[in-house]
Amino acid sequence: MIKKPNTTLLIRASILSAAVSTLTACSIDTPKAEIAYAEATIHAAQNMGANNYAAVELERAKNKLQQAQSEVKEDNNELALRLAKESAATAELAQAKAKDGKAKLAESQLQESLKIQLK
């Protein structure tokens, strides 16, 4: 006795197959631009003196960039994208802290110079 295939089961299997195919096709491309931006932002922060004023943030940015590059090699592009964006944001914070540190240093030097002139 031959049984007819259960059409509900076939429909469910087809829907599941289509969903898996769609999700696979929606994978994220390698975040090359984001990684390049993070690298450039880190270099800019270094050039602004972040080593002196925001060493912790600069190191975090470098570590996140390294992690992003490792995730790209493992084909974990979604995680690599997130890490590259975090790296760039942390490097931007390092830049801001470096600017702030330089401004505070210039202010204190100016105040010291004024004190000497007033004596």
Distance between the termini: 112 Å
State the shape: rod-shaped
Beta-strand fraction estimate? under 5%
State the share of residues found in helices, binned by percent: over 70%
Structure description:
- The protein has 119 residues and is mostly helical.
- The chain has one domain (30-118).
- Helices cover 84% and strands 0% of the residues.
- The protein has 5 helices and no strands.
- The chain has helices at residues 7-25, 32-47, 50-53, 55-73, 77-118.
- Helix 2 (32-47) packs parallel to helix 5 (77-118) and helix 4 runs antiparallel to helix 5 (77-118).
- The longest helix is centred in the C-terminal third of the chain and has 42 residues, at 77-118.
Keywords:
119 residues; mainly alpha; 84% helix
Gist of the model:
By secondary structure, this protein is mainly alpha-helical.
SSE topology:
Layout: H1 7-25, H2 32-47, H3 50-53, H4 55-73, H5 77-118
